[in-house]
Amino acid sequence: MNEVYKAKINEHYGKVSILDSILEKLKINKIDPDNLTRKDLETFEDFHIGGKLATHHLAEFANFPKGAKVLDIGCGIGGPARTLAEDYGCKVVGVDLTEAYVHAATQLTSMLRMEDKVSFSQGDATGTLPFESKEFDYVWLQHVTMNIEDKKNLFKEVHRLLKDDGKLVFYEIIKGNDQPIAYPVFWSPTDELSFLVNKNSYKSALEDAGLVEQVWEDKSQFASDWFQKMLDNMKASGPPKLGLKVIIADDVPIKAKNILDGINEGKLQVVRAIYTVK
Ligand SMILES: C[S@@+](CC[C@H](N)C(=O)[O-])C[C@H]1O[C@@H](n2cnc3c(N)ncnc32)[C@H](O)[C@@H]1O
User: Fold this and answer.
1) Domain definitions of the chain by residue range
2) Distance, CA of 114 to chain centre
3) Cβ–Cβ contacts within 10 Å for residue 41, how many?
4) Pairing with 247, which of 47, 64, 106, 108 sits 20 to 30 Å away (CA)?
5) Quick check: CB of 9 below 6 Å from ligand 1?
6) Is the minimum distance from the CB of 96 to ligand 1 under 6 angstroms?
7) Which atom of ligand 1 has the smallest separation from the CA of 47?
């Protein structure tokens, strides 16, 4: 991945000091950082459609055995990783390209005294990540691949990192039809950081990397209903005290509406799947 692109992803997701901004907003809401709980973060620490609910849905779908070692690629500020560790007994490593997110993920995890169960590092998942081959029982991806042009290399790296009986579990956004979507969206201000492909191209990239489809499900209706509810609630009672605006600098309602319209018009599809190693 080229350096200009890496810098742009870092600027897009990490343009404010995300940890400072989170701590400031918690303070405004009278939440004491010295006594932080997981509940204090639950409305904004999962940066994907469906929030914490979708993380639980995907974890149930994955059906982790106790103690499974999971790599969360594109882990953001670590909400899903902490959920898998605490609620599903997994040993989780998160990796993300955006330095500010890795910093926030690490600090929040330490404030919650969960460092023994979850750790984070910075890295580009289309390159070689700093882990041994066949190190993980599961690789987990939620709303990351929209930003990744080189899906073939990403999935090759996933294949390298999974044990022979390991599984890739994902909840991702793909192209529904060939009509262009409106920008900005949460993953890109314009089309420059957006690399959506249709179902056939997506499946080809997975198969070319040696991954084998076990289950593929369309979750677009769930995604549309969740977004509609979020926008209706915002209209009725104003923005929530915390919520996604804690980690997104601006334009939350416009970005949400552009994605919702994209799903409802068939331009975007939200899918989840399980793949195994060939
Ligand atoms: C929409 S956020 C999702 C965060 C997290 N998965 C979650 O659901 O809360 C997308 C994340 O993908 C990360 N990302 C984008 N390209 C990446 C790459 N090549 N390698 C690792 N992470 C990447 C971004 O930095 C960002 O944190």
Assistant:
1) 3-277
2) 20
3) 23
4) 64
5) yes
6) yes
7) 9
End-to-end CA, the chain: 26
Does the CB atom of residue 97 touch ligand 1 within 6 A? yes
3-state secondary structure labels for all residues of 212-243: EEEEEEECHHHHHHHHHHHHHHHHHHCCCCCC
User: CA 50: distance to chain centroid?
Assistant: 11
Q: Would the CB of 100 count as within 6 Å of ligand 1?
A: no
DSSP-derived pairing of the beta strands 268-277 and 162-175: antiparallel
**Of 219, 221, 224, nearest to 272 (Cα)?**
219
Question: Is the entire prediction scored with pTM above 0.85?
Answer: yes
Structure tokens at 160: 């390298």
If one counts every other C-beta atom within 10 angstroms of the C-beta of residue 52, the result is 19
- Would you state the pLDDT for residue 15? 62
Cα–Cα dist 17/4, whole Å: 20
Report whether CATH 3.50.50.60 matches the domain 3-277.
no
Taking CA 95 as the corner, what is the angle to CA 94 and CA 96, rounded to the nearest 5 degrees? 130
Q: Is the CB of 119 under 6 A from ligand 1?
A: no
Running along the chain, 278 residues long, what does each successive block of 10 average in pLDDT? 84 78 88 92 93 97 97 98 98 96 96 96 96 98 97 98 98 97 96 97 98 98 93 81 78 91 98 96
Q: Collect all residues with Cβ–Cβ distance below 8 Å to 116 and sequence separation of at least 6.
A: none
